[in-house]
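Hi Q.,

Before the meeting this afternoon, I wanted you to have the zinc ion prediction in hand. No need to reply - just skim if you have a minute. The sequence and ligand are here:
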Amino acid sequence: MMLILSPSILSADFANLGQDVVRTAQAGAEYIHIDVMDGQFVPNISFGMPVIQAIRPVTDKVFDVHLMIDEPVRFIKEFADAGADVITVHAEACKHLHRTIQVIKSYGIKAGVVLNPATSLSAIEEILPEVDMVLLMSVNPGFGGQKYIETTTDKVRRLRRMISDRNLDVDIEVDGGVTLDNVEMLIEAGANIFVAGSAVYKGSVEDNVKGFLEVFKKY
Ligand code: DX5
Ligand code: ZN
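Predicted structure with the ligand bound:
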């Protein structure tokens, strides 16, 4: 399975966002992780469609849009139009998760479901065949720079088993506190897409992205 780095621009320099996205892409990251927060589902507000639309022309990389908003079904069209290639929605935020996933797919883009650290894998048993990706939160969503919650590793392992037992082809993405110190453990557990915010934007973006890509090469 292809290993992919998805740097979270939540930790980028908002005054030079376009430039940071270009640098991230040129350094070799395949995805750009875009964290949208509404101040309701999570205790923080980030940015929305106009910002995504503004950075869409600067790169062809995959825009991996993580919606931390209540009832995201209300805005799927807007995020698809703004340039999302993948949209992930929280199981905890959707009254009708199945419908929300179908709406995402109706725009011809990839759909994923996200679980908070305290949400059991049983919450996605029925939706698993319908999604392209499952995103496991390894911190409580809302802020960058938090510490990795260790129990996520075993959750990744159990989810990978669930996917292969059912002969499905679903990506596992991990988001929160991912660093060079825990990424190998997560690869071995079965994750294949890695979000990193502070681990990419603190210091040199180029060196940090290369550090992850070097690790990926070993697998
Ligand atoms: C948290 C966001 C994450 C966050 C990751 O709510 O979903 O994407 O920006 O940042 P780090 O890698 O610093 O934990
Ligand atoms: Zn995220």
